[in-house]
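Problem statement: downstream parser choked on a complex file, so we are re-checking the raw output for the flavin mononucleotide run. The parser issue turned out to be on our end (a line-ending mismatch), but while we're here, posting the original submission so the record is complete.
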Amino acid sequence: MAAIRCCGGLLIGSPTLGGHAPTPIVSALGTVLAEGDRTRPVGVFGSFGWSGEAIDLLAGKLRDGGFRQAFEPIRVKFSPDPAMLAQLEEKGAALGRQVLAAQGGARRSASGGGLQESRSLPALRALGRVVGCLCVLSLRRGAGEVAIEGAMAASWVSQAGFTPPAISLSVDRQLPLADLLEVGELFALNVLAHGREGRLLKPFLKPLPPAPGRLADLDLLASPSGQPLLGEALAWLEARVSQRVACGDHWLLVAEVLAGGVLDPDGTTAVPQRRSGAPL
Ligand SMILES: Cc1cc2nc3c(=O)[nH]c(=O)nc-3n(C[C@H](O)[C@H](O)[C@H](O)COP(=O)(O)O)c2cc1C
């Protein structure tokens, strides 16, 4: 009950057994209906074999009880395949964004300062003049059917050392990809070319399009360890995370450069120009 009262959002799931939800789940649903806050988003998920009545039961009772569902109920026949797992991650991230947006709105109204106001603070405008270079971070985990590929735009990127050659970059902790960038993990950094950055960056600027579509339409090469590389980039690096430090809402990563190549010797690096160091 304490968790239900204090949570920012809530997910409830059930298998269907003999046409019903198991008793502990029915009883948890009763507690949610009695104690849950209707202003917070909820989500329903479940595995089933052939009919899946428990999922309909949970979704129907929550809807009738006045709860707002963050997404259509997730129905998985027996076990999720990798494509379904990627969709589930995005639905989870969508719910997380709704929770954070609600909390951010409450915080902003409590502090009395809007985003526009903070964007115009001199310190944030000055911070906006600190720039990195426009890149797409890409990675691949596993092989064959269970492989996961992902990519994201990254511009808080800088060289961090000569010996060994190292880079630093900062990654939003809310992004699903951030969880795949633990110490020891490999990734690729595709440095974009000035003048060609717009088209290459476009698929990665949307909040979270369906995962399989992100790299599908692009001309891909592979780094020595099999990380996906954008063939139209200016240059690429393969790196391994050596340090990860929590920096407020971002992870600050230090990574050792293991390999790299210049794909367009005549091009120059795309550098974003910003008016503020506040979030967009
Ligand atoms: C005893 C039993 C009864 C089941 N009854 C149903 C059912 O009425 N409808 C349905 O869609 N699936 C039914 N299933 C399939 C389960 O919902 C399915 O196995 C579900 O994914 C359970 O998850 P788990 O096996 O990973 O725990 C039943 C499975 C078992 C073992």
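For whoever reads this later: The pocket of flavin mononucleotide is lined by residues 15-19, 47-52, 78 (CB under 6 Å).
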